[in-house]
Structure formats: C-alpha cells, structure tokens
Design goal:
The structure is a homodimer of 221-residue chains.
Chain A (H helix, E strand, L loop, with lengths): L6 H19 L4 E2 L1 H8 L3 H9 L11 E2 H11 L6 E6 L3 H7 L2 H5 L2 E8 L8 E2 L2 E5 L3 H7 L4 E4 L3 H14 L3 E4 L12 E4 L2 H22 L7
Parallel strand pairs in A: 3-4, 3-7, 4-6, 7-8, 8-9
Antiparallel strand pairs in A: 1-2, 5-6
Amino acid sequence: MEKEISQAVIGRLPRYFRFLGELKDQGVERISSQELSRLMHVTASQIRQDFNNFGGFGQQGYGYNVEYLYTAIGSILGLDKKHHLIIIGAGNLGQALANYMNFERRGFIFTGIFDINEKLHGRMIRGIQVRPMEEMQAFVRENDVDIAVLTIPKESAVSTAGKLVEAGVRAIWNFAHVDLDVPADVQVENVHLSDSLFRLSYMINRYDQETKAAAPKKDSQ
Amino acid sequence: MEKEISQAVIGRLPRYFRFLGELKDQGVERISSQELSRLMHVTASQIRQDFNNFGGFGQQGYGYNVEYLYTAIGSILGLDKKHHLIIIGAGNLGQALANYMNFERRGFIFTGIFDINEKLHGRMIRGIQVRPMEEMQAFVRENDVDIAVLTIPKESAVSTAGKLVEAGVRAIWNFAHVDLDVPADVQVENVHLSDSLFRLSYMINRYDQETKAAAPKKDSQ
C-alpha cells in the first residue's frame, strides 16, 4: 500500500466487510454502490471514494462482485491470516470475549487466558484452562502470541501491557480504562466502554436541549 | 447549544473528562493546554479548538481550572443528570456491564436486567433480579427507563430494539452485531466489538507490509 489511508476510511472498512458478508450469506452476487448506499445509510459517493483508496475494486457493468469485494476487504483487514490471541482477565468480560465463536472463524485463535485470582486457575473457558499471571510471559514467548486482550482494571493494565510487550506481543486490544504507552511497533486498539456510554449520554442531553429550544413555550410533550 | 458540534469533537469529550477526572483525583488544581497536550498526546491547538466549541472554558492566566473544566465537560456530557438503565441479555457481557460500578457514580442507575433463558430468571446480578423478556416493555413504562443496553445476538436485536422504542426508551447502547433502524429521536451508540478487533488486525497487517517494503532484502529481524 503506497499512500496513507485515513483513519476514517480504515474505521469504516469493518462495517463494509460485515454488510458484504451478510449479502454473501444471502446469496447476492453483485451490488451497485447505490444499493450498498441505501443498505448502509452512507452516500454512494462516499463508498466509491472509500473503495478508490484500494484501487476501486473494479466496479464493472452492474456493480461490484460481492464475493470478490468481501474477500478483498477481508484481506486488507488481515483476516486471511491467523492470529494467536490471549485474554488477560478471566472475569465476565474476558469470558464474554472468549466465547465469541465468530472470532475464530475470522482467524483469531484463542489460545490462553490468565487471571490473578487463584480460584479461577484451572477452570476451563471454551476448552482453555485459566492460568496464573506468572505464566503469561513464558506463554507468549512459547506460543507465538500476536494479540493480547486486556480486560483487567486500569491499575494493573499499564504494567501488564509492559510485560506483554517485553514478551513479544504485537498488538493489544485494550478494554482497560486507561491509555497505554507502548512502543510504536506495537498496535493498540482501545475499547473504552465508559467513553462510549458518555457519548450516548451526550446525545440524549443534546436532544433534550434542542427539543426545549425548538418548543420553548410548551410545558408538556 | 447554538452551533453544530462535530462528531469528532464529541468523540473526544469523554477522553478529556477521563483525564481531567484523574488530575482532579490527584489534587491538581490548574493545568495549561500545553501540559494537557503532553499528557494526552494531542496537540495544544487541538485542545484549544475543541474547547472553543463550548466557549473556551475560560483559560486565564496559568491554564484551566481542573475542577471547573471537569464539571463543565461532565455537564455537556449530561453526566450531571440521572439515567435509568436496563440491560437486555444476562450473559457474560450483560453481567460484565452490570458490574461496572463506575457507571453508577456517573448517574447511570442500573434498574433491570432481562433474559430469554429461564434458568437465569430470578438470579441476582448486583442486587437486581434477572427477569423474563416478556416483562421488559411493562418495566420500561413503569420505571422511566432512559437507556437500554443490548447484549443479545443480532438475530433478536432488531425486533427487541423495536419493542424497547415502542415502550419508550430514549437511547440504546447496542452491542449486538447489527445496525439498528430506530426513529430519529432515539439515540443509538454502537459498540461493534468485531469491527474493533478487525481494525487491530488491519494495523498489524499494515505494519507487516510497511516493514517488508522498508527492508525488502532483509531475511531476519
């Protein structure tokens, strides 16, 4: 890839992939950017612009070939490769993520789960034994772990991330409520759940204010 | 609020709120945009521009008043109000979200949790009984529920969202892997976890390609 693709475009690729996967499952063979636009509530010109970042995916005659487009976007997302993934934290969130069967279909192989809580050690989660944190670094080294998923409290997240990087993980999927400071060759994707809930709260609040502003004299409804 | 605030600015507000909360907890009283910039890895001019959307928050003399800024941003995010929240789906993810104590501190009051699985009915999650789905609509009506959190499979998410809207919820925090189609006065915030994991996979993939491109002759390292 020669030119820099914007974060916004990258952010939209998984959604294209999801919709194309559903079309494929429904047996749809071709789709025009207009139809995709209606389905996804995105303008057709946005779709064409986004796809042009990757050479346009050869829309010819009537629309795009769904299977081809799905495979091409999957490949850009690296979903044609296998990734070994471990989960740090075997609480509810760690268990929820371990049980997303769908990830395995996309090449994310769940190989280990770790927790500080002794009571959880040895317990099986989706066929994988919960291990003590002390074994984490050796496990990463011995099992070619690419991705670590952090579902631990923010207090321990930063030091744990440091240990993971030291042991050689290439990417961290971070659910801890803190920003991590890792070397530039380690990829981090944050899922800050409360940031997301606060955005929702903002939208409710803004809607209330706009509604009030639009109808200042009304008392009810 | 008179002018339209961009989605990007709104997206950043919760992060400002988080950092300011930490500064406040550490007893920091004032902070300059330069210091905040270093801490948050955002340019100082970005910070000033973002804040100018809300009147600038009166930076005077040496920096911003941390407590004031924290309170003002919290209020823009609607965190000075109470919201009643229910969770649909009492699986691992639903339980994980119910147990985030921190939400209650921010005014999100967890009042109900619902599941189709009979075995879970009556089970207590953080002091709240799991109820059958059939009771959901009446519960929303009787308990002034503002926010519903959807942690159910995509197959049932769309119809459940319809029922929630009908019963009067104002906002949906959607973890189901599908886009919901709700009226414009219902706010939706999506957390598509696999979209997030796929972005991480994209970053790994791109890093590999750039590294290969930069050192085409090297075999190792």
